[in-house]
Amino acid sequence: MKDQNIFAIVKDINSQISIPLAENNMHRINLPKNKEIVVIAIGLDENLNPQIAKQTINSDKNLNVNLQFKTAKLSEIKQAIQSI
To answer: Which site from 11, 39, 52, 72 is most exposed, i.e. has the minimal number of CB atoms within 10 Å?
Structure first.
């Protein structure tokens, strides 16, 4: 992935948290415990095609999330974000 932004959305406290890239090329952040969290990533592939990945997790423990990116139209990305 050439360029990407990853966010964690905690619905029940109406919060959006940006997940920065750490030194080891991993995204790492402390999240509220025992909450349903939607992890959403938006980016561009090598050919500058828009990409999106979305996964719902429960933050009851440390997780390694493996996001599955797919090519999407901008309207599909907007719809995915609005559905959260």
So the answer is: 11
Q: pLDDT tens digits for 15-73?
A: 888 887 666 666 667 777 888 889 898 999 889 999 999 988 887 766 677 788 999 99
Side by side, the strands of the sheet bearing 36-44 are 15-18, 3-10, 36-44, 50-58, 70-71
- Using left for φ > 0, alpha for ψ between -120 and 50, and beta otherwise, residue 49 falls in beta
Query: Strand ranges (DSSP E) for the chain?
Result: 3-10, 15-18, 36-44, 50-58, 70-71
Distance in angstroms (rounded) separating the CA atoms of residues 2 and 14: 29
Q: What is the DSSP letter of 21?
A: B
